[in-house]
Amino acid sequence: MKIIHVKRRTLLAYVLSFSSGCLVLWIFLFFSSHQSVRPQGSIDQTALDSVGKVGKPNQLFGLKDFGKEANKDKSAKPIIIPDNAALRNMSWSALAELYHSYLSQIQVVCKDIQRIGRITDGGWDVCTDPGYIPKEPCIVYSFGVGDDFSFEDSIIRNYGCSVYSFDPDMKMQSQQRGKNSIFYRQGLADSDRTLTNGWVMSKFETIRASLKQTSKKLSVVKMDIEEWEWEVLPDLLATDHLKTVGQLLLELHQCHGCSKYEPQQEDKEPNRDHYIHMLELLSGLYRKNFRIFHTHKNRACRYISKFTLSERSACFERSINGKVSMGCELPILHFHIDGKKILMWEPNHFSF
């Protein structure tokens, strides 16, 4: 009987120890998940079949307001890209630090950000504050579909927009997908041409003209075009087309090959000239009055910086708001690296 009694106590001790371990593990996982998944806003109908209520008009912030509500750290100073001459005098490491710091900041507050499309890859964050929320008859251009129409279908269902989707790398032929949805097997570039692989590429200006929408307001333009953004952005900045764009959602890929998931690609650090090129284009968007309201780092593009030995992302998704010259309810402007950011503008706050 004594031996049996000892075994029972030993068994009880093992059970209590195992239960305590499970409880500690559960607590750790619970708090870890809450820290690593921080919602930027509410989720749209694709995820939960509900659209969040529109809040009060958000306050816009000019340059003098950076580091206040737009950034939680009230002592933080806004990160501004210097002129081109100054960029060319900066070291490679300083350029890398500037690029990642600039894309990690929030430049203006959007109080109501909706996740449009999938919660995971394929969805995008859109500002739906009064003055920015897409309203019928809204027009949306979506460049880069990747066989996932969740964003396009959701913005049609929730806001009644007419959506024009473009992707040269899909097996689907150009077609009318629905009442408000048209797909074109066509890509976006800085010139009109057909590539050796058969892709038909067109300028932004050519696409708008062919749709007879050259002067119409575009509520949202989404660009996830797998490194072609660095070719397209100079063309857009050289024209006035961005004046009629409400929100610009960009996925930026900083290195050659970053648009593909290649964990074995260890060196994702762009060379010095490419950092200068990217920063000049980001500065160009700033001068076009686009401001960042949301940014997200794609963890599939993680790498270790050769300069700081810290983890960085080679892909940013940016959501930005920019100037709308027509059809906007408020006198403001609004504007996804492989991450996403959104920008907004108030005329009296900026001088360039």
UniProtKB/TrEMBL annotation:
It holds the Pfam family Methyltransf_22. Keywords: Membrane, Transmembrane, Transmembrane helix. InterPro entries: Methyltranfer_dom, METTL24. The chain crosses the membrane at residues 12-31. It comes from the Eukaryota. Residues 97-261 form the Methyltransferase domain. PANTHER family: METHYLTRANSFERASE-LIKE PROTEIN 24, METHYLTRANSFERASE-LIKE PROTEIN 24-RELATED. This is Methyltransferase domain-containing protein. It comes from Elysia crispata. The lineage of its organism: Eukaryota, Metazoa, Spiralia, Lophotrochozoa, Mollusca.
